[in-house]
Amino acid sequence: MKKLNHYRLLQWVVFSPILIPLCLVMGAIEGIQTTFGKVIHQIKTDVAS
Which DSSP state fits 49? Predict the structure, then answer.
């Protein structure tokens, strides 16, 4: 059986509350950028035709 790495466990306990919301916010921002990019592309396609 592997020995429990207490330092690694401490890192997860300390940094998880910071990383999880940060990842959620960055994912939301990336999704918004992708959606707006698709909308702008569709608008350009509709106006050109």
Answer: -
Global pTM reads 0.67
Mind listing the pLDDT tens digit for each residue in 10-44? 999 999 999 999 999 999 999 999 999 999 999 99
Alpha carbon distance 37, 16 (integer Å): 31
* Strand segments (E) across 1-49: none
Task: Tell me how far apart the alpha carbons of residues 23 and 12 are, in angstroms, rounded to a whole number.
Answer: 15
Contact residues for 19 (Cβ-Cβ < 8 A; gap 6+)? none
